[in-house]
Task: inverse folding
C-alpha cells in the first residue's frame, strides 16, 4: 500500500510539473465528455417535450392521416366518421399558408389552422379572452379567427385584440378570441397559431378536402376495435388501402417516438464519442512524449531496483488521472452548458446513466490509451536508458 501511495504521489507530481501540457491533454477529453452530455441531453429533452405534448392529448385520441394524392375526405363525410361506434368528437384540420397583418405590422411566422368548433376540445386548448369557434361560424363561412398569444402580442402589443380586425391574405378577419399561451403542442407552436373556420379556408386558396383528422373516442379500452372500424370506413368510402392512410393512437405514437429517441440518442452519442477517441489519442501521444523525456529517469529507477510493474503502474496512473480529471471537468462543463441552453429555451434533460457512462468512458480511455506508453516505458533496458541524452 505504501508503494502504491508513493507511485501515486510521483505520478501526480509529474502531472503538476507540466500543468499546461496536462491541461491541453485533458481538453480533448473535456470537449468529448461535454459533447456527449450536451447532445444526448438535448436529444432526450426534445423527445421528452414531444412525448409530454402527445400525452397531454390523452390516450383516447386517434389521428387519421391520408397520404393519397388522388383522393381525400370531403367535409360532408365527417359526420359519417362521427356515426362510427365509440367515436365522440371529430376535428378535421388543415394548414393554410398565408400571412397575418394589422396596419404596417406583419406576422410572417403565423401557422394558420383551418378547423372546426371541435378542435379546441380535442386538443385541450383553451382561450384567455373572447370565445371559441361556433357551428354558426362554419355554416356562414365567417371570416373570424382565434389568435395565438404570440401573434396577439405581435399585432396588438398591449391592446385587447378581441373584436378588432386583422388582414389575412388581404381580407379582413375579426378576432373573436385569444388562445392561452402554452408554447409548442403536437409539433407546432400554439402561440404562433391562428385558427379559422374550416369552411373559410376557401377564401385563402384552399379547398374543403380533408387529409388530417383528430378523433376523440369515448372508451379508450376499445381503441383497437374503433381503429379497425375507422380503417374499414376509409377503405370503403375512398377505395384506398392502408398504404395510403394511417389511423394511429397516442400509445402507438409514443412507442414510435421512443424508438426514434433511442436511435437518435445512440446516433448523437456515437458522433460525440468520436471526440472522446480523439482525446484518448491525444493522451497516448502526450504519454509517449513523456516516456521519451523521462527515459533517463526510468533507467535510474530500474538501476535502483524498480520493477517493471512499478514503471507500468506509474505511467498507467498518470494517464488514468489525466482522463478522470478531464472526465470530471467535462461532466461539469456539459451540465453547465446544458443548463444554460435550457434557460435559453432549448430542451435539455440530463441523464444520470449518460453521466455515469461518460465518466466510466474517460476512465477506460485512460487505461486503454495509457497501456501502450506505459508498456513501452516498463520495457526499457536500464543500461540503454541511462545512456540516453
Result:
Amino acid at each position: 500500500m505504501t508503494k502504491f501511495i508513493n507511485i501515486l504521489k510521483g505520478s501526480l507530481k509529474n502531472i503538476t510539473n507540466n500543468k499546461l501540457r496536462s491541461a491541453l491533454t485533458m481538453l480533448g477529453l473535456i470537449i468529448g465528455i461535454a459533447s456527449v452530455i450536451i447532445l444526448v441531453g438535448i436529444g432526450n429533452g426534445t423527445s421528452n417535450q414531444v412525448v409530454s405534448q402527445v400525452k397531454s392529448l390523452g390516450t383516447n385520441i386517434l389521428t387519421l392521416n391520408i397520404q393519397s394524392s388522388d383522393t381525400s375526405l370531403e367535409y360532408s363525410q365527417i359526420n359519417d366518421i362521427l356515426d362510427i361506434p365509440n367515436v365522440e368528437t371529430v376535428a378535421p384540420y388543415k394548414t393554410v399558408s398565408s400571412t397575418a397583418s394589422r396596419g404596417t405590422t406583419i406576422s410572417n411566422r403565423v401557422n394558420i389552422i383551418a378547423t372546426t368548433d371541435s378542435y379546441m376540445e380535442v386538443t385541450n386548448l383553451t382561450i384567455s379572452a373572447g370565445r371559441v369557434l361556433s357551428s354558426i361560424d362554419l355554416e356562414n363561412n365567417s371570416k373570424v379567427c382565434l389568435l395565438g398569444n404570440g401573434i396577439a402580442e405581435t399585432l396588438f402589443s398591449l391592446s385587447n385584440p378581441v373584436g378588432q380586425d386583422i388582414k389575412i391574405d388581404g381580407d379582413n378577419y375579426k378576432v373573436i378570441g385569444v388562445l392561452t399561451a402554452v408554447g409548442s403542442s403536437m409539433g407546432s407552436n400554439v402561440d404562433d397559431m391562428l385558427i379559422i373556420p374550416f369552411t373559410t379556408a376557401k377564401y385563402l386558396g384552399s379547398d374543403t378536402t380533408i387529409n388530417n383528422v383528430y378523433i376523440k373516442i369515448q372508451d379508450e379500452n376499445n381503441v383497437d376495435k374503433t381503429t379497425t372500424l375507422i380503417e374499414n370506413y376509409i377503405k370503403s368510402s375512398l377505395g384506398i388501402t392502408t398504404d395510403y392512410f394511417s389511423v394511429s393512437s397516442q400509445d402507438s405514437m409514443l412507442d414510435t417516438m421512443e424508438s426514434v429517441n433511442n436511435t437518435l440518442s445512440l446516433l448523437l452519442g456515437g458522433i460525440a464519442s468520436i471526440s472522446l477517441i480523439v482525446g484518448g489519442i491525444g493522451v497516448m501521444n502526450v504519454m509517449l512524449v513523456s516516456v521519451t523525456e523521462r527515459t533517463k529517469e526510468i533507467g535510474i529507477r530500474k538501476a535502483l531496483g524498480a520493477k517493471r510493474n512499478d514503471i507500468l503502474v506509474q505511467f498507467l496512473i498518470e494517464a488514468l488521472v489525466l482522463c478522470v480529471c478531464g472526465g470530471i471537468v467535462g461532466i461539469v462543463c456539459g451540465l453547465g452548458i446544458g443548463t444554460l441552453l435550457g434557460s435559453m429555451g432549448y430542451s435539455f434533460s440530463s441523464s444520470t446513466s449518460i453521466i455515469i457512462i461518460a465518466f466510466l468512458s474517460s476512465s477506460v480511455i485512460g487505461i486503454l490509451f495509457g497501456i501502450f506508453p506505459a508498456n513501452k516505458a516498463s520495457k526499457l533496458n536500464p543500461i540503454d536508458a541511462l545512456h540516453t541524452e
About this structure: The chain has a mean pLDDT of 80. Residues 250-293 form the longest helix (44 residues). Residues 24 and 282 are 9 Å apart (CA to CA).
